[in-house]
Amino acid sequence: MTADHYPHVHEPGPGALVYLGCNGRGVALATAMGQQLARRLIGGEAAGIDLPITTPIRLHALWPVA
C-alpha cells in the first residue's frame, strides 16, 4: 500500500519504470497501465501516460513508527 492510497509510477533510471501501489485493485489497473508503460518505454518521454511520474516517498519504511 502507498501512504496516499494511490498507485505510483517511479522512474529510478533511464529506461526503467516502476509501477506500484495498486492497493487491492491490481488486476484492472495493471492491465491498463501495462500498455501505457510499454508505450512510454518504446516512445520515450514524449509518450505520455495517465499517471504522473512521482518521486519515492522519503522514509516511507518508517511509517509504522510514526
Give a verbal description of the structure:
- This protein is α+β, with helices and mostly antiparallel strands.
- Helix content is 27%, strand content 17%.
- The protein is built from 1 helix and 2 strands, in the order ββα.
- It has one helix at residues 26-43, and strands at residues 8-13, 16-20.
- It has a two-stranded antiparallel sheet.
- The protein is flat, with a radius of gyration of 13 Å.
Describe this protein with a few key phrases.
2 strands, single chain, 1 helix, 66 residues, two-stranded antiparallel sheet, alpha+beta
Q: Span from first to last CA?
A: 16 Å
In terms of per-residue confidence, which ranges show pLDDT below 50 for 5 or more consecutive residues? none
Overall strand count: 2
Q: Over all CA atoms, what is the radius of gyration?
A: 13 Å
| Main sheet specs | 2 strands, antiparallel
Order of helices and strands: EEH
Determine the structural class based on helices, strands and strand pairing. alpha+beta
**Sheet with the most strands: spatial strand order:** 1-2
Helix content range: 25-40%
Estimate the strand proportion. Answer: 15-25%
Overall 3D form: flat
Whole-number average pLDDT? 79
Number of separate helices: 1
Q: How would you sum up this structure in a few lines?
A:
This protein is α+β, with helices and mostly antiparallel strands and 66 residues long.
Task: Please outline the helices and strands.
Layout: E1 8-13, E2 16-20, H1 26-43
Antiparallel strand pairs: 1-2
